[in-house]
Amino acid sequence: MTFKRVLIANRGEIAVRVARACAALGVQSVAVVSSADRGSLVTQVADEVLCIGPAPSRDSYLNISALVAAAKYSGSDAVHPGYGFLAEEPSFVEACTDAGLTFIGPPASVMRQVGNKLAARALAQEVGVPVAPGSVAVRTEAAANRIAAEVGYPVLIKAASGGGGRGMRVVHSSAQLGPELQTASAEALSAFGDGTVYLERYIENARHVEVQLLGDGHGHLVHLWDRDCSIQRRYQKIVEEAPVTALPDHLREEILSSAVRLGRAAGYQNAGTVEFIVDMEREAYYFLEINARVQVEHPVTEAVTGVDIVANQIRIASGEGLGISQDEVQVDGHAVEARINAERVPGFSPSPGRLSRWEPPASERLRVDTHCFPGYLVPPYYDSLLAKVIGHDTDRPHAIAALGAGLANLVVAGVETTLPFMRHILGQREFRENAFNTAWLPHVIEDFSEKIR
Amino acid sequence: MEITSEEVLAVLRVLQESDVEVLDIRLGDLELHASKATGDHHLNGTGMSATRAVEETRVAARGQGASTPQLVEVPENTAPVARPAPAEGNAELAEVRAPILGIYYTASGPDAAPYVTVGSTVQEDTTVGLIEVMKSFSTVLAGVRGTVRDILAKNGELVEYGETLVLIEPEQGRQ
Question: With CB atoms counted within 10 Å of each terminal CB, which end of chain B scores lower, N or C?
């Protein structure tokens, strides 16, 4: 390992995850915290801790100059961005590189290409990866009307610079199209600094399938199989699993090979994920986007493949290359992850506060990724994720049972969480029978709110 | 940005359960100021805010009370990494804290005299040091009128955001 110290430019569970990966590799870690996170768990795990700014993210976790200064002055060689915050910000990659630091992720040029949805879509088309029927950038209402008539309603308006489900609108009729187009473009401009939007066919009976990639940037690129993340609320994933079991094998094979082809074409380096939407009626799949970072749901893939994605990110960035061949990546059993957030269901409003009790479950069939501890004060400033509970067993029913037992044994008090709702999801017949799509969860939320009323 | 009364209550609950006296939240155009307003003289009128360039507050000297000096503008967790000021005596000292992370300089150059030394008299706008962040320098002001009692930050060393740099005994009758 050529790195001596890695600075972790993130917080919460992923900062803890990265610090532990560093320790396992014999690399020192430097945690940076905002003043709201001075007592967070990563400060106990990392070798050095630096407070980089006040609570608001823009002054701390999004403050590029403070992060680069902290990395330089602490003698770090590399920066791990985690997910969210600056993980997919090309200017952060450049700031690190300019300061002589190695960014643990793809180069800025690759990130720019895959970060723009229209550019990524064009690249997918070049290498024969299907994209949803739709368009290039839409500039006029007349053009939008023409395209929408071609692909058929409902259509989805998407922001070219959006991602992670942000900047999307469903339009059901041509009467709505004009006004929605204007609103979407204005929103995209204010949220992403780019008002460019495009249209895609909206798929009503859909599964969200994604492929984990690891590449060394020198032509060696493997996939770590697929994940199903169809249980979503407003495009935010709630339950994720690996591998995909709802699709016929031939379709999975095509999706995997498309992802690898696209990753190679992009010259992809480090860990990334290629997302697809699968039209269950037509048995067709379409490229959605490439996420140039480690993802929240990476543990389900680690559970079934035994490959440590974060450790590999660090090794690849250090120039050690990717010491895994495709044949060595085998799937063992099934894994299901539930995200536990400090939120009140059904509104999913944040519920910060002090954890008077926090007793995570433990078993050989479980993994819990968390930054929580008894007495931890969940700050109101950031993402509400408290923990990810992952059940892993021989097959899907057993993995669900393992997760169910884990959720039954998780004790949390002091803040409201999504734990009761996660237990409710696991008890649903459609979930157990793997008979759901991306539009299913809102019904479950309605059902659950009736129950608790 | 809008806030519901439920969310305000949640904030108040956090405040109530914490050791923090005053909380200022700014999210976009939303500003929320919450205070326990117990009349605790330690924090009286210090107007803590996350966005102040130079933060200072009056704290009870260590050893005087059981509680650790509080300056965080946010709920503090159980394992603080801040290096609290090792103040002596019973006087209330103002802490000048680092507004940003960077390298601290006690003088304008290697051969220059230090901006202040122990015993120096300072005004609110007296420069006590510089912080360098990647070749860009920020001035650290005393923020209070009084006498320098201790200089905790070392010349040329890394300081964290919020780290105590200088302790100042405020001029009597002014605070």
Answer: N
